[in-house]
Amino acid sequence: MSVPEQAEPPGEEPELTRWRGTATDPEADRSRAEESTPEAVARLRRLSRTLLADLLRPHRRRLGAAVGLLLAQNAAAMAGPYLVMIGIDRAIAPLRAGDARPLVAVAGAFAAAAVTEYVARRGFLALSARIGQAVLLDLRRRVFGHFLRLSVGFHERYTSGRMVSRLTSDLDSIAELVDGGIDSLVLAALSILSVAAILLWLDLPLAAVTLFAFPFLFWLSRWFARASASAYRRTREAIALVIVHFVESMRGIRAVQAFRREPRNQRIFVALGDDYRQASLHAFRLIATYSPAIKLIGNVTVAVVLCYGGWRVLGGQTEVGVLAAFLLYLRRFFEPMQELSQFYNSLQSATAALEKLAGVLDERPAVAQPARPVPLPTGAGRGEVVFGAVSFGYRADTPILSGVELTVPAGQTVALIGPTGAGKSTVAKLVARFHDPDSGTVRLDGIDLRAVGDADLRRAVVLVTQENHLFSGTVAENIRFGRPGADDAAVQAAARAIGAHEFITALPDGYATQVHRRGGRLSAGQRQLVAFARAFLADPTVLILDEATSSLDVPTERLVQRALGTILRDRTALVIAHRLSTVETADRVLVLDGGRVVEDGPPAVLAEADGRYAALRRQWRESLV
Amino acid sequence: MLVESDGDPAARVAAGPHPVHNLWRLRRYLRPYAAQFAWLLVAGLAGTAAGIAVPLVVQRVVDGPVARRDPAGLLQLGALALLLGVAEAVLIFIRRWVQSSSAIGMEAALRADVYAHLQRLSTGFHDRWQSGQLLSRITSDLSVIRRFLSFGVFFLVLNLTTYLVVVLLLIHLHPALGLLVAASAVPLLLISRRFGRHYHAASRRMQDQQGDVATLVEETAQGLRTMKAYGRGPELAARFTGGARTLHDTGVRKGRLLANTAGLLDLVPNLTLGVVLVAGAAAAARGVLTIGELVAFASLQLMLIWPVQSLGWIIANGQEAATAADRIQEVLDTRPQIVDSPGALALPREAVHGRLHFERVAFRYPGTAAPVLDGVDLTIEPGETLALVGATGSGKSTLLSLVPRLHEVTGGRITLDGHDLRELRLDSLRRLVGVAFEEPTLFSMSVRENLTLGRPDAGDDEVRAALALAQADFAYDLPWGLATRVGEQGLSLSGGQRQRLALARAVLGRPALLVLDDPLSALDVHTEALVEAALRRVLRNSTALLVVHRPSTIALADRVALLDGGRIAAIGRHSELLATVPAYRALLAAEPPVGQPPPSGAASTASPAATSDGRGLVRS
C-alpha cells in the first residue's frame, strides 16, 4: 500500500522545505492569529478569554443550574468514604451489641447519596451538552459570518486552506472537549478542593502530612501547563500545513497526475506529516511524564499516610475508620488529577483552537460596512461612476493606480485595455468595492462607496470575472444566485437572453442538473454562460465584465455580445477584454498603462489617432487570418 | 440526511459485513508496533498489579501492626507500600512513553497511505468527491482511530484484566460479597451494549454531517469572490447555519445518550459498595471478616469503578473508530480506474515518432446516459499540429484529457505509434505528454517547483528555455526570482501570467506530445503574438493537439478538426474548411467588422448575416 520510498539524492535534504519557495510578504504566511511573539500570545489569550465569556453569557442561568448539579454530584460522591468511616467506627460495635439501627442509617444514607449522584450527574451531563452545543453553534456561526465579512484582500492573504482549517479542524477540537471532558475537568478541580477540606476536618495532623504534597503538585502542574501550551500550539500549526497541502493537491489532482507529481507530493506530504508527528510526540511525551509523576506523588503520600496514620491509631490519637476514610479520599484526590491529564490534551487543543478563532474574530474588516449607510438614489438614469484622485496598491511599496481621475456617465459602456499589470482588474475591483482605495474616492451616483450598505451596493454593482465559480447545487440554483427570489420563468428568461438555454436543456436533467464539484461536468464556456445568466438575472445598474468572455467560442461570444447590446443599453458597463471585437462596440475606450489613463476616447476616434490603441488594433487585425 | 449531501454518491455506502470489520482490517498498521504493544501490555499489567497490591498491604497494616500494636511491623509494611507505589509510577511512565510513539506513528503511516491512494484515484473519482469529505477523513477520522487503536484497545484489555483480578481477589476475601460484586457487572454490560448501539448510529451521523459542513466551508472559501460580488453572504450564512444546527441537534442527542448511560454506570457500583459496606459490617460484627479485610474490600471495590466507567467511553470511542474506519476504507477500497495493465510498456522519448491515432473513440461520464464522444476517428502525424474546434460544450477538453489518460476511453482506442495507450505505463505516457489545462493550476510553492512539477531534476537551462518560450521571463523579476512562492498562499499573479507559467510547464523538456487547451485565451494581443511565434518553433518537433477558440490561434495549426455531435465532422486546412463547411464558418469566422454597431434584439442563433460579414474579413 505504501508508495515505495524513492531515495532522495544526498544533499537534497533541505529540498523538502525549499519547495514552498519564499513568500513575498513573510506576514502573508501568518495572520495576527498566528503570530508567536510573547505579547501576541498574551493578547490572544486575553482575546480568547473574552470570547469565551461572551459566548457563555447568554447561558448564565443554565450554567448556574449546571454548577448546582455539579456541586450536588460532588457532595454525594464525597459522602462515600465518610460513610465507610462511620460504618467501621460507629456501626460495627453497636451491631455486635445487637443494635442494627446505626448500620441501617448508614445504608440509607449510602443509598441516598448514590441516587443523588446518579440524578445530578445525569442532569449535569445533559445540561452541559446542551450548553456546549449551543456555544459551539454560536461560535461556528460567528466565525463563518465574520469570514464572510472580511475583505477579499484579507482572504487573499489568509487563503482558503487556512479558513477551512479554522472552521473544521479547530472547531472540531473544541467540539471534542465539549463532547467529553468538561465534567471531568470541573469535577476534578472541585473534588480536589473538597477532599482537602474534608481531610483537614477529619484529622488535622494527618491532613498536614498530606498537604505536604501540595507544593510539588502545584509546581509540576504549572510546568506541565506551560510546556504543553506551546507544544499544542506547535501541533496546530503543523496540522494546518498538512491540511493546506492536502487540500491543494486534491483540488489540483489533474495537474498532479498529468505531470506525474505523485511521488514528490508523497514525499512532501510524508515530511509535513512527520513534522506533525514530531510535534504531537513532544506533546504526548509531556503527558507521559506528567501523569506518572502525579501518580508517584500520590503513591508516596499514601505510603506516608499509612505509616503515620497507623502510628496515630497505635497511639490511640485517631480511629481505624478515619485511616480507612483517609486512604479512600486520597484516591479521590489523585485520581481526578490523572484523568485531568488525559483531558488536558483535548483542553490544550481546544484552547489553542479557541485562540486562533479569537484572532480571526479580532480581524477588523478592511472593507468595513458603513455604520450609517447612505441609500443610493433610485430611479432611471442612474449608475454614474466617478474616480476622484484614486491611488491604490496591494502592497504599500508597489502602487498599482496613482491618482486616477475618471468619470463614467450613467449608461455608458467603457472598455478598459492595456498591458498585463496596467491595473485594469484593479479598477474593476475598486468599483465592486473588493478593496477601498488607499487615497481618493470611488463614487457611485455621487455617493462614496464606503458609505453605501452592502446589500444596496451589490444590487447596484455586479462583477463578472473569468473565475465563474459555480456552487454545488443545480444549474437553476446557480443562476438564481444572482437574484434569490427569482422564479423559474425569470431564471429561464435570463438563460435565454444570454443564449445559455439551449445547452442547459440539453443537459441530463435540464435546469435541475447538479453541477457537482466546482462545476466539474460543465465546460469552461458553459460555466461562463451560466455566470452571465446569473449576472443578467441580478439586473445591476453597473455591470463590470473582467475577461468574462475569454472561454467562449466565437458564435457564443457573438450571441452574448448581442445580448449585451440590449442589456448594456440602459446601464453603466466597464468591460475588460483582450479581444478588440468587444472593445469596438463600446462607447468609449480607456487605455491604461502604469496605473494611469493614457488614452481616452471613442474607439473610432482613437483608431484614427496614432496612439497605443491604434497600434494594438492594427496588430489585432493582422492576427485575424 | 444520507441522501441529501449532493455530489458524493459513493460516500455513504454500507459498512462492512460486521460493524468492526473495517476497523479490524486496519490491524496491519499496528503490526510494526507488535513488540512495543507487548511491552506496553506487560508494563500496564505489572503497574496495575502493583496498584492492586496496595489495598492488600493496607489490610495487613490494619489487621497486623495496628491491631497488634507493632510499630516495627508498621514501618516494614509502609516501606513495602512505598516500593509498590514507586514501581507503579515507573511502570506507568514506561507504558505511556512507549504508547505515544506507536500511536502517532500508526496514524502517520495510515495518513500517508490514504494520501497515496487518493493520488492514484482517477480524476473521475475526484470529480465526484468533495475535498472537504476527503479532508475530514484524513484529519478527524484518523485521530479517532488513533485514539482507539492506541488507548482504547489497550485500556479495554487492561481494564478487563483489572476487573477480573480484582473480582477474583474479592471472591477470595469474601465469596458471597465477591460474587455480588461480580454479578453487578451484568447490568453494567447490558447498559454499555445498548449505549454502544445507539451511539454508533449517532456518531456516524455526526461524522457525515461534519463532512457536509466542511464541504460547505470549502466551497464558500473557493467561491468567496463570487459570493462577495453578488453580496450573497446572508444566504450562505443561512445555509451554513442550517448545517451547523443539524450538527448541534445531533450533538445534543449524543450528549443525552451519554448522560443517561454515564449516570447509570456510576449508580450501579455505588449501590454495590453500599451493599458491600452493610453486609461487610455485619460480617465484621460476627467476626467472619476482619476490619482490615473490610477496608481492603472497600478500596478494591472502588478500584473497579474506573474500569467500568471507562468501558462506556471505550465503547463509544470504539464505535466512532469503527465508523471512521468505514469511511476510510470507503476510500481505500475504491479501486483506481486508470492503472498500468500487466506487462505495460515504457516508451523512451527517443523511440517515439509521435503518430497519435484515435479509433472510434467513445467517452461517457459515469452515471450519465449520453456519451460526450461517440466514434471519434482522427490521426495526427508525427510533428503535426492539429487544432480542435467545436462549439462550447462539444467535448474538446474531454477529448484532450483522454491523451494523458486522465479519463479512460469507454469505447474504441487511442494509439501512439501503434501502441494502445492502455498498453503503455502511465508514468511513461505522462512523461511523453505535456499538458496545459484551460484553467492554469498553480500550487502554493515556488515558481520553479510549479514548473518542474513532476521533474524535480530539470536543469536551469531547460527551465529558462521553457519560460522564454512562454514569454514568462517575468518570473525572473519576481522578488525572489524562481524561488518566489506563487499560488494561493503566495504572490498572486494575473490570469495571463498564470497561463504563461502553465504553458511553460507544458513545454518544459520538449515532450513528444503537446496537449494544450486554449493556451492563449488570457493573453493580450501583443503577448499572444510573441508566444505564438515561439510556440511555432516548438511545435515543429512535437505532435500537438490544441483546443482553439480564436481564429488568430489557428494559424499555429497545420490542420483543423471540427468536433460536433461527439465525432469529427470535418477536417482539413483552415482555409478549406472556411470555404466548404458552413458549421465551421459559423464557429470561426472573424468578429464583426469595425464600426458596425452591434446588432440588437433577441437572438437565438448566429444569424447568416453575421457569418457572411465575418467572411468578408477573412482575406489577409
TrEMBL record, chain A:
Pfam families: ABC_membrane, ABC_tran
Domain ABC transmembrane type-1 as annotated: residue spans: 65-349
Positions of the ABC transporter domain: 385-619
Cellular localisation: Cell membrane
UniProt region (Disordered), positions on chain: 1-39
Residue spans crossing the bilayer: 63-88, 100-120, 185-202, 208-225
InterPro entries per record: AAA+_ATPase, ABC1_TM_dom, ABC1_TM_sf, ABC_transporter-like_ATP-bd, ABC_transporter-like_CS, P-loop_NTPase, Type_1_exporter
Topology of the protein relative to the lipid bilayer: Multi-pass membrane protein
Keyword Heme: no
UniProt keywords, alphabetically: ATP-binding, Cell membrane, Membrane, Nucleotide-binding, Transmembrane, Transmembrane helix, Transport
GO molecular function, one term: ATP binding
Chief location category: membrane
GO cellular component annotations of the record: plasma membrane
Record family assignment: Belongs to the ABC transporter superfamily. Lipid exporter (TC 3.A.1.106) family.
Protein name: ABC transporter
Source species of the chain: Micromonospora acroterricola
Source organism phylogeny: Bacteria, Bacillati, Actinomycetota, Actinomycetes, Micromonosporales
From TrEMBL, chain B:
Domain ABC transmembrane type-1, residue spans: 38-320
Methyltransferase found in the keyword field: no
Parts of the chain that traverse the membrane: 33-54, 74-94, 148-171, 177-196
InterPro entries: AAA+_ATPase, ABC1_TM_dom, ABC1_TM_sf, ABC_transporter-like_ATP-bd, ABC_transporter-like_CS, P-loop_NTPase, Type_1_exporter
Gene3D superfamilies: ABC transporter type 1, transmembrane domain, P-loop containing nucleotide triphosphate hydrolases
Record keyword Hydrolase present: no
Native organism: Micromonospora acroterricola
Domain of life: Bacteria
Ranges of residues in domain ABC transporter: 356-590
GO terms for MF: ABC-type oligopeptide transporter activity; ATP binding; ATP hydrolysis activity
Name recorded for this polypeptide: ABC transporter
UniProt-annotated stretches for the region Disordered: 592-620
UniProt lineage: Bacteria, Bacillati, Actinomycetota, Actinomycetes, Micromonosporales
Major location category of this protein: membrane
